[in-house]
Amino acid sequence: MTVPLIGRIGALVIATTAFYTYVGQMVPQKEVQPPAEVVVKGDLSTADMAKIGREIMEGKGLCLTCHTIGKSGALRFPDLAGVDGRAKSREPGLSDIEYFAQAMYEPNANIVPGFNPGMPTINKPPIGLNDREILCVIAYLQSLGGTPTVTLQTKHQYNAGAATPSQGASPGGTQPQTPLTGEKR
Amino acid sequence: MPNGVMNGAMNRKMRVLFGPIAGLVMFAGAIWIASTLVSREYKEPYRAPAAAADATPRAQGLAAEKADAETKARATPYVEAEYRRFPVVGSRVAIWAVAQLHLLFAAFVLAVPLFAFIIEAIGYKSGDPRYDRLAYEFTKLLSVSFSLTATFGAFLTFMLVILYPKFTNYLMSVFSPTFLPYVLLFFFEAFFLYTYYYGWGKFHPLVHLGLGLGLNLVGTSIMFIANAWLTFMMSPRGISDTGAVISVWDAVYNYTWMPINVHRVIANIAFGGSVAAAYAAFKFLQAETDEERAHYDWMGYIGNFVAISAFLPLPFAGYWLAKEIYAFSQTLGLTMMGGAFSWLFIIQAVLIGNLFLAANYYLWLGMGRVEGVQPLQKFIKYLLIGIALCFAVWATPRSIIATVSEVRAMGGSSHPVLGYLGVMSAKNTAVNILILTTFMSFLLYRRTGKIATVPWARIGHALQLAIFATAAAIVIFLGVYGYFVEATVRIRLSVPQVSSVLIAMVSITVIDIFLFRGATRTGEVRWGKIPPISQYVLIFIAVTFTWLMGLMGYVRSGLRQHWHVYGVVRDTSPDAFTPTLGFATKVVSATVLMFFLLIGVVFWIASLHERPDFQERKKAAHHTGAPEAELT
Predict the structure, then answer these.
(1) Has residue A21 been placed in a domain?
(2) Would the CA dihedral through B582, B584, B588, B594 be positive or negative?
(3) Cβ contact (<8 Å) for B483 and A74?
(4) ipTM > 0.85, yes or no
């Protein structure tokens, strides 16, 4: 029995699309939900803030889409392992908190040598973290190579506070603002 | 004066007299109808008196329910809907399928006139009527496709207004100044298309070519306007942080507008060429005479040539688009290449690898049409090895799906050796060599059955080989070098890689044209003498192209994730999540199957041209004694 031409062509079209559909099933299947809103209560401890900061970095903040923690080699964006140690001394006149805040509110103010600019402004869409969420992220970043000291009451130059000196973190500090000359990220 | 002339003059006078009288009567009639309608008093439609109506408890209950519902409806304040739900498949999939079908037909309708115009121009210049016939054959497919494109366009607009009213309203508020020009251009498109098609052979060839040019210019302009809307959704510009319009021109000329314009023009040509080649393949397989087979073999060859010629520079347009996406937002770029969509590019590699393999296979089969092919056939196995290797490298993922024990054994999710092939340095190198190899196949095909006779033939061949080898060496060197430099340097290496391949292709082609001018033929091209499997390869290429367009359309649109307009208008509908790639491929397959079903109808309608008239067939059936029932 000879299969009519239209049947042969139809079978070829169906087989080809079926093959590509099959290839589509072979790759990892991940459904990406819109980032869940994280509730940051006003009475959180610094340790809790660091935990929430980690959650934000993995989810709504999209930080770990680009940054890595504990990877070396030819990276496109700076690795964050031990970042607090570097943040304290990277920019003369800026504390680690001010440094992290500048990296998120004004990411292109300074770029880490060897990397291209590319970090979005974190308090604006599409990421759009609020001031409290950013403080939580700072708490987590401080925990990478340091001890978190930031609280939800901490003021920095981007949340109506002023720049704090680089000698250790000073939550709630109201030091005079330092000119933005440091390297970022 | 003869009677006939007198009667004619009388008739003319009567017509002159009756014309204004008829006009006056019609005008008076219109006034009378209008005044009657206006003066007529409104009357309630007749209803049976309450006493005569059914007054059973059931009827009373129903009346009470109706009154209650009406009271509730009146008490409910009007609230503008943000979203509406499409039954069964949901709003997102419904819009996705309709948009995809609209885009596929639009791509076809925009692409076919481009190469029909070029083929017609070649025919006019060379005086070879075969080209004119070929261009007309391609154009025959346009008329029905144009109607389907417009139908799906209207369908898409209604679906957007119904299912996503708030977002559609926002887009309209930004782009309203572009709508009138769009509609106007659509009228011009219809004018040019139908005069180009129905006016075939009715005008001076240059006038007809002018119509073709007009059709292409208007069609491309329409696409550019529509591209502004969709690229704005991905890389918005010209608006404030809250979404208020600052500059419509900036909204149009956003980061990705021009790269998408260029990418789509090229991709449309590749897609249109492949679908037209599939039509030719279908007709070839249906053909009953050698003459028909020869014609459709040639048509298929030209369609495939157009498709592959446009396909070769397409990755470069893709690079530009990706670069602009990164320039607009690194987050968006990384979502595409390193985030949720990174595995999609492995599927893309499979598709493009298949396209390259199939295109080369068709060319190699085509060499059999030409006498004296044997000296060149020995190179095919090397080309095949090159293509297979590049395909394998391109389809190697960076991280491998593995069990916990396998990950432990590998020391991470990347394979200790193969992991090096999963990065962009290796993939850029593979795709550039793949393009060079396919280009080499084209060259071999071009020179099959020919011997260069120019005095500098030996130097010409050597020069071509040297250019090819140099381009390949540059691509491979930069690919390896990319492993040893920082990201800032590595990203820029793709530019010299791409440039060296482009320069090689252009310069080798130019040399080839002069090299084989006045060449001696060792054998004739026997059109139609090609194995039937080659025609199935053409259909496979068309399906793969269509599927690839569907997949890449998904990534372009899906990249926005939970945003209608990235960073400005958030998607808060139940469909705001990004589905799995497996689900996405199922939707793509469904739309591809629907497209081929509809394009089959287009092919059938286009072929009605060649069908003998019903009365003629009836007569022929009468002569041969066939039953009339066969005359459908």
Answers:
(1) no
(2) positive
(3) yes
(4) no
